[in-house]
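Narrative of activities, Objective 1.

The group set out to show that a structural description can be obtained from nothing but a protein's sequence at a throughput compatible with the screening campaign. Below is one input-output pair from the validation batch, recorded exactly as produced.
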Amino acid sequence: MGVVLRNLQKVVPLRRARLRSDVDTLRHILGIQKFDLGIICVDNRRIQHINNIYRRKNMPTDVLSFPFYEDLRPGKLPCPLHRDELNLGDIFLGVEFLMRQCQEESLDLHGILTVVTAHGICHLLGYRHETEEEWTEMLQRESYILNEYNRLTGRHLEPLTKRCSQDR
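Output recorded for this entry:
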C-alpha cells in the first residue's frame, strides 16, 4: 500500500521526494506501511475554505486530518475486513501557512512538514487534543514518533507546541 502525495498549491516550492521519504519513515516507525494514506499540500485559500466547512473556523491553519476510521481508540490500529479498507485517511497540509510560520520563527520548512505530518497521522490513528489529558497523550505519541525519526535520520525534530491548543 502506499502514500498518495498531491501538491495542489503553487505558492511554495516543495521537494516532494523528500516529503514522501519522510512520510515513509513515519509509516515505518508506526508500523502502518500496509495502509494507504493521502497527503495533500494546499495554499491558504484552500485550507481556509476546508477549515471553514469542517471546523467552522474561517482562517487558514497548518494541518487538517480526515480519518477513514472515525472511532479509533488512540494507539489502536484499525482491523480492516476488506482490502479496500486498508486506508487511514487524508491529511491536508497548509503549506503556505507553514511557510509563513517557518519564516517568522526561522525554521526549516521540510522539517516542519514532517512534524506536522506526524501530528496529522496521530489524528488519523485516533489521537485528539480537546482536553489537557488528550493533549498530553498525543504529545507523548508525537514525541516518541519524532524521537524515533531523529534516531533513524540523524535529524533533530520536535513537536511544534508543548501545550494544549484548541486551534490546531
